[in-house]
Amino acid sequence: xxxxxxxxxxxxxxxxxxxxxxxxxxxxxxxxxxxxxxxxxxxxxxxxxxxxxxxxxxxxxxxxxxxxxxxxxxxxxxxxxxxxxxxxxxxxxxxxxxxxxxxxxxxxxxxxxxxxxxxxxxxxxxxxxxxxxxxxxxxxxxxxxxxxxxxxxxxxxxxxxxxxxxxxxxxxxxxxxxxxxxxxxxxxxxxxxxxxxxxxxxx
Length: 203
Fold this sequence. Notes:
The protein has seven helices and five strands; from the N terminus they run ββαβααββαααα. The protein is α/β, with parallel strands linked by helices. α2 (64-70) packs across α3.
């Protein structure tokens, strides 16, 4: 049984990241819970323990260009498949945090609201995904210091909004998202969203 969780769905910049984690039934590290309930320092420390504790885990990502081309649901599916296919063994079933099964066949999926509070595998996945993505976004800070990626990690914040208004989006920004409508200098850069079936409309 693999626990699966994602991070980055609501960000304006950066990838959406999914972690798949498989546990071996042993006692989890003390304090393991939903990543959002841990401070950044606690999350980083917990991730170090989890990498040693989980039986297996893998990370999958969908990049901003893939999100723009596919839409978020298909991008999540792509990232989750990359994570699950990165495990050393194919899991028999998947516990997916939330109520929407964005994964689908051929995986046997069980959705569970707040699974990161009731499943240690999903909680581990949530922490590992969050720490992985935060580290990636912080690594962009030296190249794009005005955007505050080391603190906002691509989500809207006053610093991020001000940098967008002044400098426009970077190559790491999602270009189909409506935040561009609020940027008069840059709204012409917004791309059309994919249709629900994944196709870009022509008109």
